[in-house]
Design goal:
Strand content: under 5%
CATH architecture of the domain at 37-122: Orthogonal Bundle
Structural class: mainly alpha
Number of strands: 0
Mean pLDDT: 78
CATH class of the domain at 37-122: Mainly Alpha
Helix content: 55-70%
Radius of gyration: 25 Å
Shape: elongated
Low-confidence stretches: none
Order of helices and strands: HHHHH
């Protein structure tokens, strides 16, 4: 048995048990963070789609476009006007006073979270 193990150790491409165990432990430690980031990206993407569908008619909803309505602030500058977290309540209850001809928009809780995540992602 020992000679087989010695032969394995000597062979090219053999990774020692301790090395493999270290690799697996590091991978297991990093995996939850990577999965959380993937969930964050999905939520941000969902928020982006929601604001493109519901808000981009008047508001600039990306980090570079221009609002087509003079009273509609670009989403990338909202953090200069409001704490972003404060928008969650307004989105859930229905924003109807943003600018005079703004249509009322009411978001479901998962939509609110996604929109807030997206707005946060484009605000400096």
């Amino acid at each position: 048995m020992r000679t087989r193990l010695a032969a394995l150790k000597a062979s090219e491409g053999f990774i020692g048990f301790r090395t493999m165990l270290r690799f697996l432990l590091v991978a297991a430690a990093l995996l939850p963070g990577a999965m959380a980031r993937a969930d964050d990206f999905r939520q941000i993407d969902y928020g982006r789609k929601l604001v493109e569908e519901n808000c981009s008619r008047c508001h600039a909803v990306t980090s570079t476009d221009k609002s087509s309505h003079p009273d509609a602030p670009p989403f990338r500058t909202l953090s200069e006007r409001y704490p972003i977290e404060d928008l969650a309540e307004a989105l859930a209850e229905g924003i109807s006073t943003g600018h005079p001809d703004m249509p009322e928009f009411v978001a479901a809780p998962e939509q609110v979270d996604a929109i807030i995540a997206y707005i946060r992602s484009i605000n400096p």
